[in-house]
Amino acid sequence: MALLLLLCYLGTSSRGTYMGRPSHGDVVGGVSVVLVQTNITKLTARVIHAAGYHLHHVEHLSIMDAPNLEHIVVEDLRKMPNLKSFFITQAPRLHHIPKLPSLPELRTFIITTSGLLEVPNLSHVHDTNKVNTSLPYLQAIDLEGNHIKRIPPLALRVRADQVSLNYNLIEEVPAHAFKNAQISKLSFRGNSKLKRLNELAFAGNLLLRQLDLSSTAITSLPTKGLEKLETLRIEKTPSLKYIPSIYDFQHLQKAFLTHHFHCCAFAFPERHDPARHALYEKQKAIMAQRCQQMSASKRRRRSPNSKVYKFGVENAQETAIDDATTSEEYDVVSEEYTSDTGSFEDDLEGFHEIVNDTLSHGVAYFAACGNFSLSRRKVECTPLPDALNPCEDVMGWSWLRASVWLVIAAAVVGNVAVLLVLLTNHAELTVPRFLMCHLAFSDLCTGVYLLMIAIVDLRSYGEFFNYAYSWQYGVGCKIAGFLSVFSGQLSVFTLTIVTLERWFAITYAIYLERRISLSAAAKIMLGGWLFSLFMASLPLAGVSDYSSTSICQPVESVNVGDAVYQGSLFLTNAIAWVTIVVCYVQIYRSLGGGGESYGGRGAAAAAERRIANKMALLIGTDLLCWAPVAFFGVTALAGIPLVDTRTGKCNWLIEKYKLAATPPPTAQTNPSAPAPLMPLIDYNRSQSQVSKENGEVVL
After folding, report:
1. Residues forming beta bridges with residue 381, ordered by sequence position
2. Which residues are within 8 A (CB) of 547 and not within 5 positions of it... i.e. 6 or more apart?
3. Which GO MF terms does the UniProt record name (predicted)?
């Protein structure tokens, strides 16, 4: 990426590009010095001059594959007053660069895939004594792929469009690391050891618009200095526990996060941060009251020249109409107020007064007196919540919640009763009774799993996203997921053995010596227990994950190992169910001939048929319970998950509500193409762009 950026920059800003010695025909225009596979140990002006380059003509200096480079004499860079770009890559022995001097023309500073141990001090790069000139800035600072562990104080006190510290060894971002800096885009992607961001890590950065903390190990996100943030990326960072309130981000438009439940914070601010939301509602009510007072006063003293008034709220930040902090998010005036023949004040005569303010807790809105309304701010957030990762509650529907509690009662009470009856009966222990004990125990584990999910649903009713991290990444979810997989596998395995035992007993009824012995059944069930424990333990060891869903099921398929694991679960269950169906077909065929296979003993055949019917009912109902799980598991494994939203039955009602609640489009609310990237010194915030695409969280 850095090399591509450099080549693009060279292609647009240099008159000539040279490899080795320069062309003597071009002595006026700037040149590009490119040293490839060089053995120099120290970069000095003498080295460049000895290669045949005139220092005053050098605009671009690039060094690629310099395995012995250890030192850079930074003072010699001042002998190249026209230097615009400085690029070094693959210099593993380059551990330290002294503080850079003033280089007024420098625009890109790139050192990648080298051995830097700390960020070079660039704070004096653009120190200048010139007056009446525009302030210089850096287009890019790229230090990707080094061994940087620390950011020295004031090292990045620069004006820069983008700063990349990706894929280093940074462990902490200290307080005021970017104090008095003006950095528009900042990226720490791939710093896997980065765990701590000081509460004041970004404080003092006056211009931060985009921040990337993906693939790090941070557990929290400070908000000081992020008030003007527009794009936030924290992908592949499962350690992030808490996302700040929407009220901490005045201008956030896009958020690319790791957890589904973090997007819920933007959709339900009243549940995510009740105190801040209460303050917001209180100040909105104060503003509405002021509007009513203004409207009443206006009616008493109408004048032909109506004016636009701006109000403040107690404890609120008064905002000028032309303030950039409000011009982007919200629509000041709708298109109907614009006139080609008269001024805005003339068109407003006899209509409503416009009120413009920014609340003290960071959410601005506009209100028209007599028609008070909150502008709906939209945050495009991914990944969106779905049926397995909901915002409000785990169950989703009241009837499902009630049904689960009934199933829990039946499963726990019924299976405990079966175990007590079978274990306390002093009669001889037979193979069917032995197998039924295992089946009852596995079903009891399923009931305990459902009980844990139901308790979490009851405790977090209406605001599950506030409890999601502590539940899904806690011990409780791991225990619940383990019980679910273990009980499912042991239940299917036991049902298969029960079916095989019945098939063997009925098919070979007259051969008593061919029955399955109790010791053989014990050895078979030992194998089933070991297999079930093994399959339930794999997600705890990192193969798939119990924490990917609210119901603690290992449905996440990120790599080949996850896919093999889920495929193995499906394959073993499929083999078991096919075996069960085939065996019962054979059983009914053998019992359907009037008892011939029993030597004409029709009564014995009828008794066996009744037993087979009961077992078929038991196994058939279990099959019906697991079939939907298996079906949706297969679709998810095939990359076509059908369980993505709660239901699609009421989409028409949702769309109807959206249409009724959304104001008609105006010149400001219509989507438009994003503005092209402009130099930092000319950067002005654009007008609000309210996207109507899917995947947005609406406030």
Report:
1. 255
2. 238, 472, 473, 477, 478
3. G protein-coupled peptide receptor activity; protein-hormone receptor activity
Distance of CA 165 to the CA centre of its chain: 21
DSSP secondary structure of 438-454: HHHHHHHHHHHHHHHHH
Domain ranges of the chain: 1-127, 276-379+651-698, 398-637
The 3-state DSSP composition of the chain as helix, strand, coil percent (nearest 5) reads 40, 10, 45
Q: Which helix (H) or strand (E) holds 255?
A: strand 254-256
Token duo for residue 195: 């765990």
Residue 143's identity, in one-letter code, is: L
Contact at 8 Å (CB) between 313 and 287?
A: yes
Which residues lie below 8 Å from residue 127, measured CB to CB, with a gap of 6+?
102
Q: What CA–CA distances, in Å, run from 287 to 150, 245, 282, 298, 642?
A: 47, 22, 9, 16, 46
Tell me, what amino acid is at 109? F
Give residue 169's identity as a one-letter amino acid code. L
What's this model's pTM, rounded to 2 decimal places? 0.72
- From the list 308, 280, 282, the residue with the least C-alpha distance to 369 is 308
- Report residue 148: phi and psi, to 5°: -65, 130
Query: Cα 248 to chain center, whole Å?
Result: 19
370: nearest Cα among 355, 358, 385: 355
Out of 133-137, 150-154, 346-350, the most confident range is 150-154
Across the range 267-283, mean pLDDT stands at 87
Find out whether the peptide bond into 383 is cis, omega within 30 degrees of 0: yes
Q: Cα dist. 643→388, 466, 566, 574, 639 in Å?
A: 8, 23, 16, 21, 12
The lowest-confidence range among 237-246, 338-347, 642-651 is 338-347
Question: Cα separations (Å) of 190 from 78, 185, 215, 581?
Answer: 34, 16, 5, 51
Cβ partners under 8 Å of residue 563, min gap 6? 557, 637
Omega before 222 cis (within 30°)?
A: no
Q: Which of 497, 479, 508 is nearest to 437 (CA)?
A: 497
Q: Is 155 helix (H, G, I), strand (E, B) or coil?
A: coil
Q: Tokens standing for 44? A: 């000095």
Q: In a 10 Å sphere around its CB, with 0-12 CB exposed, 13-18 middle and 19+ buried, how is residue 456 labelled?
A: buried
Per DSSP, what are the bridge partners of residue 140?
Answer: 108, 162
Per residue in 240-252, pLDDT (tens digit) is 999 998 888 889 9
Amino acid at 122: L
Q: Regarding beta strands 71-72 and 378-382, do their DSSP bridges make them parallel or antiparallel, or are they unpaired?
A: unpaired
Q: Which CATH entry fits the domain spanning 398-637: 1.20.1640.10, 1.20.1070.10, 1.10.472.10, 3.20.20.370?
A: 1.20.1070.10
Amino acid, res. 39: N
Contact indicator for 374, 296 with CB cutoff of 8 Å: no
> Going along 85-194, which residue ranges are E strands?
85-89, 108-112, 138-142, 159-164, 172-173, 182-187
